[in-house]
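Progress note, sequence design subtask.
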C-alpha cells in the first residue's frame, strides 16, 4: 500500500491510527507542514519501506 500525501497542504501532527495500516509500504508526506513527533505506532509497520 502506498499513501501519497506529498504537497497536500497538510498541517498538524500525524495520527497514531496510521499504525493500523499493517500493509503500508510507502508513506509520502513531503512538502507539508507536519509538526510534532512521529507516533510510536509507526514503528510497528514492519512492511514500511519508505517514509518521506
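Output:
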Amino acid at each position: 500500500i502506498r499513501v501519497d500525501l506529498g504537497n497536500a497542504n497538510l498541517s498538524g501532527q500525524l495520527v497514531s491510527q496510521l499504525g493500523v495500516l499493517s500493509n503500508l509500504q510507502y508513506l509520502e508526506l513531503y512538502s507539508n507542514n507536519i509538526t510534532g513527533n512521529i507516533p510510536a505506532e509507526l514503528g510497528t509497520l514492519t512492511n514500511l519501506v519508505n517514509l518521506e
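The chain has one domain: 2-51. Work on this subtask will continue into the next period as scheduled.
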